[in-house]
Amino acid sequence: MAILKICTYPDPVLRKETVAITVFDEKLVKLTEDMAETMYDAPGIGLAAPQIGESLKLVVVSTARREDSKQEYMVMANPEIVEKEESQVDEEGCLSVPELLAMVKRYRKIKVNYQDINGEPCSMTVEDRFAVVLQHEIDHLNGILFLDHLSSLKRNLYKKKVKKWFLPR
After folding, report:
1. Is 54 a catalytic residue?
2. Which helix or strand (DSSP H or E) is residue 127 part of?
3. pTM for the full model?
4. 149 carries a ligand binding annotation
5. Which of 15, 66, 90, 106 is the most exposed place for a label (fewest CB within 10 A)?
6. Domain ranges in the chain?
7. Mean pLDDT, each 10-residue run in order, the chain (169 residues)
């Protein structure tokens, strides 16, 4: 397994359209293992393929119950939210949007159709924090960053901060 480079805002790969996974092979297994290792190393609780420069409809999410527990994760290929209920506001951060935490409004309960690592169709209904994580990661597959859910004022403040990081000293 390998730790991959995480792409950060404003890298254009984060906005690219992703393509569906159609081949479920050892290469995909290796990619998801590397993604999981990268996610836990960061540390994070979810990672989408665009965040490591791959324009694929693929996410890995931690299923560990506590931070100190075994590194368990699930793979979701071609995930799609098919049902959503209620809303909630929760604090989010993103490995691709460093140094920013913000309150974001998301659905409280969602149903997601996806394929597992073997290409088998699956469906899952989740709520609360896990629903937030899945919505966040699925947004990445559509070129949407959690930054896009913020007010224009907060977005612009963050953009100014990022520009300063790249100015010559």
Report:
1. no
2. strand 121-127
3. 0.91
4. no
5. 66
6. 12-165
7. 93 96 97 96 96 98 71 93 96 94 96 97 96 97 95 90 71
